[in-house]
Every structure is written in C-alpha cells, then in structure tokens.
Write a structure and sequence with these properties.
The structure is a single chain. By secondary structure, the protein is of the alpha+beta class. It folds into 3 domains: about 120 residues, Butyryl-Coa Dehydrogenase, subunit A, domain 1; about 100 residues, Butyryl-CoA Dehydrogenase, subunit A, domain 2 (Beta Barrel); about 150 residues, Butyryl-CoA Dehydrogenase, subunit A, domain 3 (Up-down Bundle). The chain is about 50% helix and about 15% strand. The protein has 11 helices and 9 strands. The strands form 3 sheets. A 4-stranded antiparallel sheet has the order 2-3-7-6, with helices on one face. A 3-stranded mixed sheet has the order 1-4-5. The protein has a two-stranded antiparallel ribbon with strand order 8-9. Strand 2 and strand 3 form a beta hairpin. Helix 5 packs antiparallel against helix 6 and helix 7 runs antiparallel to helix 8. The radius of gyration is 22 Å and the shape is globular.
C-alpha cells in the first residue's frame, strides 16, 4: 500500500467529504446557485425578512428563471431537464440563504408547474410551462383550506358543472406566491371526485389577499385564495387525474426538495455558529476552545452530515426511479426536525447575538417552524412511516 498519497484537507462544513460523491455536473449546479444566492439574495434577505416583503419579487423570479432553476427537474417546455439530485442541491443552496426563497422555487416548480406538466393537457402545458420556467409567469398551488390541512379528502371547496363550463367556489389558506401569481392550480371537490383547475388569476371572482403578521417565512409571499363563483371553461380542468392522487403527487415532489432544503438552513446556522465561536473571546480564549462549545458544534455537524447523506441517497433513488413516497416522508421528517434542532443549538452559541438579524440563525430557526408543519406535519409523516413499517393505518 502506498503511503505517498496526499490526503485532502478536512473541511469543517463537509467533515465526511460528501462533496466527493457528487458528479462534476452536480457540483457545477451547486456552485452556480450558491453564487447567485451570494450575489443577489444574501445581502438583502435579512431586510426582506424584517420588512416582510421581497423587493421586486418578479425581478427575482425572472433571474431564477434565467438561471434555469424553475421547474429545473422537468423535461421539455423550456425546463432545464436536470436530475433530481441537481434539483436537490439547488434547494439546499437556496434554503441556505432563506427558506422563503426555496419556497418560491419549490411552489413554482414542484407544485404549480409539476401539476400542469404531469396532469395537464397539451394546451395547458404549452400556454403556461415555458413562461413559468422563464420566470415570466408565477404560479401558486391551492390545496390547504382554512379548516382543512392534513385531511384534504374533506376539502370544502366545490366545483360544479354549468353547461359546458365549471363554476368554482373555494377558500384556500397559507398559499405561497398567491398574491403575485399569474396562475393558480386549485383543487376542489366535484361530483366526480377531487379535480384540479388551472385558473388565471385575472379571472373574475378570483382574489388573493396577502397574509400579514407572520413571524416565519417573512421573505416570502403568503396568501389566502378566494374564489367566488369563478367561471371556467372545460379546458381549465387538469384532464389526466381525478382524486387525491393528483395533489398528493405534487406534494411528494415538493417534500423531496424540502429534504434537501432544510439541510441548507442547517449548514448556514452551523457556519455562523462556528465563525462566531472562533471570534468570540471569553475568559481569555475563543469560546470555540471550550469543550461544551465544541460538543455543540460537533453534534450539529453530525446531524447535518447524516441529513445530507440521507438527502443524497434519496436523490439517487429518485433519479433511478425507485424512490417511494414513504421514503420522502422519512427524509422530510428527519431532516426538518434535525435542522430545527441545529438552528436552536446554534442560537445558544451566539448568545444574545443569536436573536439578531445581523446573523442568519434566528431567521432560519423561525422559518423552519413553518417548514416543520407545512406539506405534512411531523405527526402525519410519522404515521405514514409507521403504517409502512407495521401495515396498520393509525390516522383515525
């Protein structure tokens, strides 16, 4: 055995050397998205969070479209056609900047665009997907209701046939991008079962008031959707699916991105805590030189490393066509929960500075409180995995 091989340097933010498992194309995607975030988003996102508004959200969407990250894992119609792993790495870098920015991209690509791409007609795809991929049109996804979250089968939104048209009455809540959207994919109960509708937001009877007073995902547009007697032609219906299979397939796509994205928030918090610990001097030495601080840093990095390895494994399975919905639930359950714990621990290392927006930690921590419960709560994903393990449904 040769002893002359030069070993690589230890990377504090990649202690296991996971980057070596990535292809050249995957590293290029990661680095390109990281650069855009560093130049276009990171310098401003704390101010956006504090003010509760993104400056020029349409301009940002256009830049993200130009980069190719909107619907980047979809084929055709102006989409980049990249791999699931490349999409995951993009989500990690976006959420390392802010969960709200990753949400904008996820809702656009994995919910609204995916619904049209997977279940839409040829005309619907041609009309919307190229514009959405370019960032020229923004989409939203209306499933959650004011009184219906984890049980979408009991949604109260209704659509009925009236001659050759459909008339849609719906209330949807906590809808990312809603106020700025050009098109909404809205799910409603019909006599045939749950159906999806592609609704231009300038249709009479549609409105999307923005939800204010949030303490989480503040650098993100969150809205209520109100549809009062919205009349739509038959061509507005997603023709290829009836039932909950439609919206749940879209949620599975978005949850996959969260598995990766949560690790971005975790990495950013570890990086901030490590930098601060090396600079903050107490009792004559940096606090990083104390055993208890090192234990926190190491424990955070252990969970981060395991989370990224899990995300990468699931990405490889998705690219191979073998990823199960229950495995996405496993990843979402673990990675968001661990990322939130990492952020909370990082906050303690920063002490009082941990609550300041001069550092990213409290922003990530607050954001992850939303990510923890949207697109499936801890309880729901626990029961999904539990059912897969035991064969017994425990939802009721």
């Amino acid at each position: 055995m040769s002893t002359s091989t030069k070993l690589p340097l230890f990377e504090p933010l990649d202690p296991a050397g996971i980057g070596d498992l990535l292809t050249a194309d995957e590293r290029a995607v990661r680095d390109t998205v990281r650069q855009l975030c560093a130049e276009r988003i990171a310098p401003y996102v704390a101010d956006w969070f504090e003010s509760g508004a993104i400056d020029d959200v349409r301009g940002l969407a256009k830049e993200l479209g130009t980069l190719g990250v909107l619907g980047m894992h979809l084929e055709g119609y102006g989409c980049a056609g990249m791999s699931a792993t490349e999409y995951g790495l993009a989500c990690l870098e976006l959420e390392a900047t802010d969960s709200g920015i990753r949400s904008l991209v996820s809702v656009q690509g994995s919910l609204a665009m995916f619904a049209i791409w997977r279940w839409g007609s040829k005309d619907q795809k041609n009309e919307w997907l190229p514009r959405m991929a370019a960032g020229d049109a923004i989409g939203c996804f209306g499933l959650t209701e004011p009184d219906i979250g984890s049980d979408p089968g009991n949604m109260r939104s209704r659509a009925r046939r009236d001659g050759s048209d459909w008339v849609l009455d719906a209330r949807k809540m906590w809808i990312t991008n809603g106020t700025v959207a050009d098109v909404a994919v809205v799910w409603a109960m019909t006599d045939e079962g749950v159906r999806g509708f592609v609704v231009p937001t300038d249709t009479p009877g549609f409105s999307a008031p923005e939800i204010k007073h949030k303490m989480s995902l503040r650098a993100s547009v969150t809205s209520e959707l109100v549809l009062d007697g919205v009349r739509l032609p038959e061509s507005a219906v997603l023709p290829e699916v009836i039932g909950l299979k439609g919206p749940l397939s879209c949620l599975n796509e978005a949850r996959y991105g969260i598995v990766w994205g949560a690790m971005g928030a975790a990495r950013s918090s570890i990086e901030a805590a490590l930098s601060y610990a090396n600079e903050r001097v107490q009792f004559g030495k940096p606090i990083s030189a104390f055993q208890l601080t090192q234990q926190k840093l190491v424990d955070m990095n252990l969970e981060y490393t395991k989370g990224v390895l899990l995300a990468l494994h699931l990405g490889r399975r998705k690219d191979a066509g073998t990823l199960l919905p229950e495995q996405v639930s496993l990843g979402k359950l673990n990675n968001v929960r661990e990322a939130l714990d990492i952020c909370r621990t990082a906050r303690t290392i920063l002490g009082a500075n941990g609550i300041s927006l001069e550092y990213p930690v409290i922003r990530h921590m607050n954001n992850l409180e939303s990510v923890l419960t949207y697109e499936g709560t801890v309880e729901m994903h626990t029961l999904v995995v539990g059912q897969a393990m035991t064969g017994h449904e425990a939802f009721r």
